[in-house]
Amino acid sequence: MTKTSTSKTSANLPLQNMFQSSTDNESDAEINLFYDQIKNKLDSLMKSPSDDIINNILAYSKTK
Amino acid sequence: MNLQSNNDQELVKLYIAGNESGLQELLRRHKSKIYTSIYLLVKDQYLAEDIFQDAFIKVINTLRSGRYNEEGKFLPWVMRIAHNLVIDYFRKEKRTPIITSADGVDVFNMLHFYDESAEDRMLRDQTHKDLKAMIHLLPDEQKEVLLMRHYADLSFKEIADLTDVSINTALGRMRYALSNLRKMLKTKEVSYKG
Fold this sequence. Notes:
The complex is a heterodimer of chains A (about 60) and B (about 190). Chain A has about 60 residues and is mainly alpha-helical. Chain A is built from three helices and no strands.
């Protein structure tokens, strides 16, 4: 019988397992600091719908 | 008519009373928050615009028919409608979000970063793509909370109500979302300096 094993380094963990792993090692302060650091980057992903879509909505409103 | 100082509920009342500028101001005020939340879930500009439009058609129909009773909570209400439409879409498609980039050129970036070097722009574009991809990799329930909290600016109470979980669960999901993003950033060794 062949025994198989899998490396348990984080690089080889399935993503779902990574996500389920504990965050106990991280303090709230660390998480909050990270959020502060990344806020601007998250903000830079902000997008708006096209003017056409807004005009469609406003035009629809006038028919109601 | 300057309506920027009016709160959402006042704008809703104006609109119900027949003043179209109430809706215009509500759209101007919230369109990016709502659209970004939809877009980062469905990852397709045109689909996101369709869902955004459908959400506001429902909003208009509800307001015009006098069935609106959210009292001062316009944004969470619209987010709930948009959220349900996104869920409907994925149910119909019978699939979960996958990482495909269907988005076109990011006009926002072009407008705000026209004076940076080509190298800087390439780096920034890459970090954008990385961050977007990482958000898409988050489990759905964590991604939802992150988008609702950061982009739609909803309170944890509002998120908890909208997703039918306790406030503590919503808080925990946000924490896990951030922790996982942090982990992925470390793994990718992406630099997000200034």
